[in-house]
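Tutorial handout. Part one gives the primary structure; part two gives the three-dimensional structure as tokens.
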Amino acid sequence: MSGEVQPDYAKQPLRRFLELVASRQPAPGGGAAAAIGVALAAGLVAMAARFSENQIDEAAVLAERAHGWQRRATTLAQADAAAYGRVVDARRSGGVGAGRRQRIRAALSAAADVPCEIARLGATVAELAAQLAERGNPSLCGDALSGAVLAEAGVRAAAELVAINLTAAGIEDGRARECTRLVETASNAARRALAASHRGQVSKNA
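Part two.
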């Protein structure tokens, strides 16, 4: 991957992006996939909000907010690939001893920053998805629920990548603990969305 320029994922046809994920190259990998999962979740949240103007006064504002999160998540998919590329470059760099180890350590620490941001964003998306499942248009509850579950998955994947990078770098700081809290936040939101969906099903069948 060293020296390679990654294509702009946002401009790739879906089929091509999926082919890139499955190809025999290190990026796009888990971090990019987690970010795209969050982007899809944010898109579902934006749609659910746009159809909830009769239920939520600020629905249009929430929809635009979620749309912005979708764009941000897509940017983070690209950033993750770039960060991992720098890790590969550091590992392939010449030299031995403390200097090379420090370059690798710094690259791994920087590579943990991107999935940490993905986890932050995903937790925010999951919470809004839960609100829409609870208060939004009941006909879009399934979409809001799907958004919450997708966002939770993205947060979980990103949090694990943070832990992997920090462990490989031999770094202990607040990022791993923060990601643990973000997973809890996203999981709670997904459970709320699921409960709202179940309540809606019960009311329809009553």
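Part three, for discussion. The chain has a mean pLDDT of 91. The two ends are 58 Å apart (CA to CA).
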